Amino acid sequence: MARIKLPYGKSLVEIDVPEDNLAGILTGNHAPGQTIERAFEHAWKNPIGIENPAELIKPGERVVFVVTDHTRSTPTREIFSLLWERIHTNVRPDNVVLIVATGTHRPPTKEELKAMFGDLLDRFRIEIHDCDNDLLQIGTSKRGIPILLNRHVVEADRVVTIGHIGTHYYAGYSGGRKNILPGVAGRETIERNHAQLMDPGCEACVYRGNPISEEMSEAARMVGIDFIVDCVLDRQGQVGLVVIGDLEEAHAVGRAFWDSLFRVTVSERADLVVVSAGGYPKDIDLYQSYKALYNAGKAVKRGGMILLVAACPDGAGNDVFTDWAMRSKHPQDVFDIFAREGFKLGGHKALYLAKDLQRAEIHLLSEMNHSYVRRFFLQPAGSPAEVLNAARKQFGKDYRVLVMPHGAETFPVIGPAV
User: Is there a single domain that holds both residue 43 and residue 161?
Assistant: First the structure.
């Protein structure tokens, strides 16, 4: 029996899979072991596509640092502190604003802000982006979408983003330009950008030829980002790489590194895929946990089963996502709502979930009320063993199981073993 520990909220759950049924554990490759200080120092001394980043910031300039929010695992406090050590002689703290790039997410709580920033809260001005207020239009995209962005970002003399690179199921990858759009964009801009998600180019791990991603890059270029600081985290959440430099060139290096770690070849799809969103904060709600579910769908047979292990202490996590599910008696009803009402941010995730349900039966192990889970057309699970038993009954004693302990950061690619 293989006993596998899966991240769940701020703890772990265990699943026992018979050795004969275990098709594999998809975890990606190990990153080179190094401290965040060492990774940052190397990136600082070897900027990509720019000269010395410290020389870009001049005394007296207003500098905005756009950082990811509480739903991301970026080690913001550590990275900003390392950055500040190297630029503090060029800029005073009162000329600095750190903008939390929430996009359309809820604002972080006081506890979440403390976890993100620590003592930086007392030393620097920190603003929470509001996608409905304090916006300026910086231009119009090639596709005719008004680019509305946070006023502090637009009016800054220098803009630096701090984030992390991972996969994103319709924007291709996170990091870089995503700190701007959707991170500090207006709701209309975000919704109209994301409305392109039905385009066949809008897929995970697709950067070029992805209209959503390309428009995000366009918005970031309008801002004139001076440099990005992005990290790639390994499967233990430790920093495997830091890249510093040009919006496109540095991000490209980070993407290639992420691919080398987390694009995992699978020889065949499984009857049952057990996937963890990766624990807190990746499983803070069902809306965020969906990223892992999307990836698991790449590895399951049509007509198979998925068990999503995600604590979801914040419940569904998005009002529109919830509304579309609550108004539907069957997954097909979500498609009907989309046909009648068109794209709505949040509703898109209900649409993706309905598509996944056409492929597989989905079970959810979470803290959510079981009757509430069923409203999203998911089967509530009391334990992993319960779902394994259901798979054995449905597919027979030779059923095949794939386990993805960090599903949000693991991208299965079906093909011959390499």
Answer: yes
Mean pLDDT estimate for the chain: 94
Write out the H or E segment, with its range, that includes residue 154: helix 151-155
Same domain? For 121 and 13 the reply is no
Residue type, 409: E
Identify whether residues 304 and 220 lie together within a single domain.
Answer: no
In this structure, is the dihedral angle defined by the CA atoms of residues 318, 324, 326 and 330, taken in order, positive or negative?
A: negative
Write down the number of H helices and E strands in the chain: 14, 20
One-letter identity of residue 329: K
* Domain assignment of residue 377, given as a range: 2-29+262-414
Percent of the chain surpassing pLDDT 70: 99
Instruction: Say how far apart CA 219 and CA 180 lie, in whole Å.
Output: 7
286 lies in the same domain as 393: yes
Is the model's pLDDT at 417 over the cut of 50?
no
Last residue of a domain, one of 233, 248, 282: 233
Q: What is the pLDDT of residues 165-180, one digit of tens each?
A: 998 989 999 999 999 9
Q: Is the Cα torsion angle 332, 335, 340, 346 positive or negative in sign?
A: positive
Same domain, 209 and 328: no
Most confident listed range (177-186, 226-235, 340-349): 177-186
Q: What local confidence, expressed as pLDDT, does residue 30 receive?
A: 78
Tell me the per-residue pLDDT of 313-324, one tens digit each, with 9 for 90 and over: 999 999 999 999
Residue pLDDT, tens place only, 236-278: 778 899 999 999 999 999 999 999 999 999 999 999 999 999 9
Question: For residue 254, is it within any domain?
Answer: no
> What Cα–Cα distance (Å) separates residue 44 from each residue in 90, 203, 227, 288?
16, 32, 11, 31
Length of the chain: 418
Residue type, 186: G
Domain count, the chain: 2
Whether 365 contacts 311, CB under 8 Å: no
The DSSP result for 367-403, as a single string, is SS-HHHHHTTT-EE-S-HHHHHHHHHHHH-TT--EEE
Give the residue among 125, 128, 124 at the shortest CA–CA distance from 103: 128
Give yes or no for residue 416 having a pLDDT over 80: no
